[in-house]
Amino acid sequence: MKDLMQKIIDFLIEKADPSIVLRVKKEVTSNLSNEEENDLLDRITRQKIVQIILQSQKPDGWFGNSFHGQSPKFGAGMYDNMEVGLRYLAEKGFPPENEIIAKAVNSFLLKEPFDTAYRVKPPQPPDTDYTYTAIELYLTRSSLIIRAGYEFSFPPNDFIDIKHDIDFSFKTFTSVLNYDTLDDVIYTRRNKLCFKPGVLWPCSYNLRILAHSQGWRSEQNTALLADSMDRLFSFPHTDEMVYTYRKGQFVGPCFPFIHSHGKIIGIMDKENISLDMMELFARCGIVRRVPMLADMYESLLARVDDDLDVNISLDKRKDHGWSPYFGFALEEDWKDKTRMQCDVLFRILLIMHYAEKLSG
Q: For residues 28 and 352, is the Cβ–Cβ distance under 8 A?
């Protein structure tokens, strides 16, 4: 295990994008001087995609003309929108104290929950996230603040409670232990499957919040999260879309863990493992504790051969892109095999690092 990790580290430091080099040295080996970090950040800042995001930043710090991903209607592309833009910069290694990041995070304090920047149809009360299953516009906001590194330093305010959202996210996972069958969770309304009113059920934003936060962590809570995830994987799933019914509308929830294999980008199928999703599970410290995740972890490592080629199927057009629900590519493009290889190996390295470090 250690030999493979070191082999990947050496390969990435020699061949990878400066953002990957920065994060390997800072996050994995803890061997990065301030001078080298500043030099790498300078190189990262000049990259094309990063520049698209930076040039879209408005005077108040907001990125682009949309919040929840790209929107041709409002002129927001794949990267120049608030959600993907901020997450991408954090993934590229921009630290919390960076002026661009600080300004972007502060912009959340300048916009009321009904601000048109969120592109929501009024009325959408601030407690929507806690009333309707997996409709998490404002928890999305908290996930970004946490990913940017502001879990403990976000200024107190009247409408964003980071601690509450962490506790709530933990509760959505542990609530799975309260249900035994699909009929406990969903019902049929006008020939569509819907979450039952009042059901708590986890989605990808709850997972992101837990993966990048610290406040919930204890041995007891990690064990409980592992038990909840074990139940989640063994719980009956459906191939049909499950909606959240809200005020007369069928709303597509935010990537809830209720659908079968394909609709949760393969995380339940070890033949098609989602690298970014596996990384989030690893960051939660549960990969070694949950049999299905442990099995997928070993399967993933077995796909790395002696030459560090990874036997994994990727779609260059899809997997190099970013959206609110997926994205892991930090290399500027995948025009050659080595760039794709670096992105894949970096995520595998992170999965290994956190799976072993937080294994308990």
A: no
The pLDDT > 90 percentage for the chain reads 66
End-to-end CA distance of the chain: 17
| Confidence at 121, pLDDT banded by 50, 70, 90 | low
Euclidean distance between CA atoms 79 and 91, whole angstroms: 13
Tokens of 246: 């809200």
Greatest Cα pair distance in the chain: 61
How far, in Å, are 56, 64, 218 from residue 75 at the CA level?
11, 8, 44
CA 103 to CA 85: how far, in whole Å? 13
User: Are 353 and 5 spatial neighbours (Cβ–Cβ below 8 Å)?
Assistant: yes
From the list 79, 107, 75, 77, the residue with the least C-alpha distance to 92 is 79
Handedness of CA 110, 114, 116, 120 (dihedral sign): positive
CA dist., res. 163 & res. 151, Å (int): 8
The pTM score is 0.94
